[in-house]
Amino acid sequence: MAKRGGVVRRLLVPSDGSADSDRAVDLAKRIALAQSAEIILARVAEPVAGSLASAGGEVNADAYDHFSQSDDAHIMGELRSLADTFGLGSLAVRCLVLHGPIEQALLDCERQQRPDLVVIASHGRTGLARLALGSVADRLVRDGASPVLVTPRSRGIITTPEHALVLLDGSAVAEHALPMVQEMAGRPLRRLVLFRSVRKEQDRSPATAYLEGIARRLDSSGARVEIVVDVAPDVRESVEQASATVDLIILCTHGRGGFSRLRHGSVAAHIMRAVSKPALLVRAADILDTE
Q: How big is the chain by its Cα radius of gyration, in Å?
């Protein structure tokens, strides 16, 4: 299981060779440099039997082994070429070729490698394209143990996250994101905006006092801390507007509901579908499972 407490020493970064995936790799690289962390580049190989059948090839043991070894070597070569482009001797990079259904292969890899953060693109070729509907990310958040940073499909995505919007609602569940916030403050985050949305004006004062208390806990974090309380009838629209001036959104998801909670108004799900900023999702199922 991934280490608790927000420590970031190892990043798992699935890559499929697409432009969107490459941007996720760039973002992971910046975080890894700031954290002096290791990057694990991983790619899930296409099922060999399906590739042979679509190419009209005979699916027998010898053909299967030959094609599998050749395909793995090709993928490993691409991953190593990607790692070479980093050009940074101080950054440790490992490359892994995975097999099986993409969601399960990544979950198995996460359990074996125990990363402190998974960075994945929301769009890509083949299997990763399904992330647009929450399939891969939903499995990683619901069944995995590590926080997941999802990058959206965007030509203008920021690859050096410096300004983060931290979503809080006054609950202990939401505060499960704070250890990760503290770890990344100053490395690379230089500005933290603690944000809370309330529905009534009379709730503004207690919400402000709550955020001020959190801000004091982050005073020595190495980042400039601001607080924002917005009075709005729809928290999703409020978050969408607040995200316009930041590079990254950090929040705690409500555990095993995953992104399917969109139909129930999940802020996390809305962000994944409507907000064009990377989102770092910290899972809080450990609390919810005991309730």
A: 20
End-to-end CA distance of the chain, in Å?
21
**Residue 234's pLDDT is what?**
86
Which phi and psi angles does 8 have, rounded to 5°?
Answer: -120, 100
281 by DSSP, 3-state: which? strand
Q: Which two tokens mark 23?
A: 């941007």
Tell me if the bond preceding 115 is cis, omega within 30° of 0.
no
Read off the pTM: 0.83
The dihedrals phi and psi of 279, each to the nearest 5 degrees, come to: -130, 130
For the domain covering 163-288, report its CATH number: 3.40.50.620
Cα distance between residue 40 and residue 96, in whole Å: 7
Q: Do domains 10-151 and 163-288 have the same CATH topology?
A: yes
214 DSSP 8-state letter: H
The topology under which CATH files domain 10-151 is: Rossmann fold (3.40.50)
Q: Which residue has the higher pLDDT, 282 or 209?
A: 209
